[in-house]
Amino acid sequence: AQSVTQLDSQVPVFEEAPVELRCNYSSSVSVYLFWYVQYPNQGLQLLLKYLSGSTLVKSINGFEAEFNKSQTSFHLRKPSVHISDTAEYFCAVTPVVGRARQLTFGSGTQLTVLP
Amino acid sequence: KAGVTQTPRYLIKTRGQQVTLSCSPISGHRSVSWYQQTPGQGLQFLFEYFSETQRNKGNFPGRFSGRQFSNSRSEMNVSTLELGDSALYLCASSLEGREQETQYFGPGTRLLVL
């Protein structure tokens, strides 16, 4: 079984400031890792993912996340946030082995960007 | 390509009733998964269907069921609704083979049980 911990339920930050949203996971098997973003009254949008290869992955809108296997972490960072980044962010994992698709999510981090 | 679509978007029911939610996956995607999102429990996996067969199931009571049709469209049904079933129900689809691990979500159906 897997579990995902997002330690910060709310992160307020001023516009143009850097931000880090933390994600740690626990799993007895290798996992793929994902960050999803949810805007109010919408579904989940895939932000970025780590499958293999370079441990630093980037999204098209300036977010990046680094997979750290020894610390079982996948923290999300952005050097300069915008008002439009205000949303809830979810970290998720799914096992590498097996064909069944099941995401295990963290409890989410509400990012609020202040003017 | 069109994304995952879910109907209806909003639904109000009363306790004891049953409800059916529909999900159309991205064209070419054959795996469909369902999740329940509530403020208290967060995002929880309900079940996954592939080729009209339930391939994986989460820890939900038997009142929650689903099915998948030959065109990969999926429905989920909740019988004997309880107040605690009020939630956002999200459907996700994924490919088999390359990129099979990545799930793409629909906008969700918001169910309110009174």
Brief characterization of the structure:
Chain A is an all-beta fold. Chain A has strands spanning about 1-5, 10-15, 20, 25, 30-40, 45-50, 55-60, 65-70, 75-80, 85-95, 105, 110-115.
Q: What would your notes on this structure say?
A:
The complex is a heterodimer of chains A (115) and B (114). Chain A has strands at residues 2-5, 10-14, 19-21, 24-27, 31-38, 44-50, 56-58, 64-68, 73-78, 87-95, 104-105, 109-114. With 115 residues, chain A is an all-beta fold. In chain A, the strands form 3 sheets. In chain A, strands 2, 5, 6, 10, 11 and 12 form a 6-stranded mixed sheet that branches. In chain A, strands 3-9-8-7 form a 4-stranded antiparallel sheet, with no helix packed on it. In chain A, strands 1-4 form a two-stranded antiparallel sheet. In chain A, strand 5 and strand 6 (44-50) form a beta hairpin. Chain A is globular, with a radius of gyration of 14 Å. Chain B is an all-beta fold and 114 residues long. Chain B is built from no helices and 11 strands. Chain B is globular, with a radius of gyration of 13 Å. The mean pLDDT of chain B is 94. The A-B interface holds A 32, 34, 36, 42-46, 49, 51, 90, 92, 94, 96, 99-108 and B 4, 6, 31, 33, 35, 42-43, 45, 48, 50, 55-56, 58, 90, 92, 94, 96, 100-108.
Show the helix and strand layout.
The complex is a heterodimer of chains A (115) and B (114).
Chain A: E1 2-5, E2 10-14, E3 19-21, E4 24-27, E5 31-38, E6 44-50, E7 56-58, E8 64-68, E9 73-78, E10 87-95, E11 104-105, E12 109-114
Parallel strand pairs in A: 2-12
Antiparallel strand pairs in A: 1-4, 3-9, 5-6, 5-10, 7-8, 8-9, 10-11, 10-12
Chain B: E1 5-7, E2 10-13, E3 19-24, E4 31-38, E5 42-50, E6 53-57, E7 64-68, E8 74-78, E9 87-94, E10 104-105, E11 109-113
Parallel strand pairs in B: 2-11
Antiparallel strand pairs in B: 1-3, 3-8, 4-5, 4-9, 5-6, 7-8, 9-10, 9-11
Could you name the key traits of this structure?
heterodimer, A: mainly beta, 6-stranded mixed beta sheet, B: 114 residues, mainly beta, 4-stranded antiparallel beta sheet, 11 strands
